[in-house]
Every structure is written in C-alpha cells, then in structure tokens.
Amino acid sequence: MAEVSSADVRELPTDQGVLRYHEAGDPAARPLLMLHGSGPGVTGWRNFGENLPTFAPHFRCLVLELPGFGVSDPTDQHPMAAALPAVGRFLDGLGLEQVDVVGNSMGGLVGTRFAVAEPERVRRLVTVGGIGRNIFSPAPGEGLNLLMEFTESPSRERLVAWLHSMVFDRSIVTEQMVEERWAQATEPSTLEAARRMYSRAALEGMTRAAERSPEPPYWAMLHRVRARTLLTWGRDDRVSPLDMALVPMRTIPDAELHVLPNCGHWAMIEQQAAWEAVVLAFLARAD
C-alpha cells in the first residue's frame, strides 16, 4: 500500500463541524471503519496507525477522529454523546451504506451502539475491550480511577501512571509517547472535553442521569446487535477487566470472544501480530 503517515489527515465538512480522518487501502474495497478509544492524548492514528499495513491490502480503512479529542473540530457536547451521531454523519458524508467496524474501548462502545441503532449499516463488528459491565470486578476499575485523577489535576506523573495501567508490558510507554500525549491532553479545549467525560463529578452525574432515564442501559440492548461480532480482550486489562466480556458474549446473538494473554487494554498495540491475525481472519470469513 502507499505509505500513510499521521500527517495525512483528510477532512469531511459536516453541518456540525469538520470531521478529520485517515484513509488507506483500495477505495473500491470493503470499507473498514476504525474508532479510537478515549483518554489523555488519544487519537485514531495513535490507536490504529500501526495496524494499517495489515488491513489496508484488504479493506478501505477509514480511521475516524471523533469530536472532542483535539483532531476533528471541538464539540460542546459530552464527547460520548457527540461520537454516535458523528459516525452517522461520517458514513453519510462519504456515501457509505454499510461498513465493518473495529473499535477500541470507547470506540467499541460507540460502534456497538451504532450497530444497535442502525443494524443494517454494520456487517461485522470487532471490539477491543471496553463494552459490557463489571460482574466480579469493582467499578470503576483501576485505569478509570487513574484517568479521573489525571483529568481533574493533570501532571506528567499522573499521565504515566494512567498509561502504565493501560498495558501489561510497561516498556511500551516510551518518553516519546508520554510527551506526545501530554501535549495533546493538556490543550485547553481537549482537556475541557475530557473533564466533561472523566471528572468524578461528570461520572457521578452520568450515573444519576442513567438512574432517572426511562431508557434501558446500552448493555441491556446488546441482543439487538445483528452484526457478526468478535470481542477481543487483553487478559490483563486493568481498565475494562475481562469479566466485563461476559454480558456481551452471552447476549449478542452472533458473538465470539478471543482473549490475548500478557496483554492490557491496548490489544491492537501490545499483541499486535496476534490481534491482527485473529481480526483479519474474522473479517475475511465468508458470510
């Protein structure tokens, strides 16, 4: 494939701001939408840039930068609330009726909610941790507590502590990674959006709102997913512990679970080759 870099950002103007994305692969191939997670300094490129050489020969890869994380235009909404309609605007803007979706953590949750809301538009769904609910482990987990501490009072030390909670092998957290993420995470509009998501007050407010809402929680709607689904999980995930997989594994009608050992929350990075092999085989499997 032609080499793609983090600087190769495309733009899609919409009625709610510009959505930015990376594209790799044959424009005529099956589209594969890749949705990043959340957290300090996250981008779609940092989540999936290293995976593109494996998937681009087979798919039209579209790495969407969700609003509120410092690459696409900012949003006044809660970033999670902005993400779901952004996916629909993005697919409509590119004229795509149906896609395969790969989502890491929050991106997996967004992709799953999109598959519930518009089931005909998602053929295959792959998640990397992040969906379901805690059954045996405490909630919020260690990684989310460290994320809240950083969001409320940012420091390099708290950023490093959070990054270490994301991985099994701490050597993955390099000084370059820390500096890149620090620069983006502390940009004022990005930090303000993060506080709408991950301050302790924000999470407590979301809990109270969910208790008052007449709508069931998203995890109670997983039986509505019609896409064939692959749940991938790091066995040693300290952000969304493995017991969270039990509800989606049991309630999504056509779901399978693959657990990667010696692996934290970033399976697509920490166990890159093994994760890519499993996901590529799943996406290429005949309907």
Automatic annotation (TrEMBL):
PANTHER family: ALPHA/BETA-HYDROLASES SUPERFAMILY PROTEIN, LIPASE-RELATED. The keyword Hydrolase applies. The keyword Hydrolase applies. Pfam families: Abhydrolase_1. Residues 31-270 form the AB hydrolase-1 domain. InterPro entries: AB_hydrolase_1, AB_hydrolase_fold, Epox_hydrolase-like. GO terms for molecular function: hydrolase activity. This is Alpha/beta fold hydrolase. It comes from Nocardioides deserti. Keywords: Hydrolase.
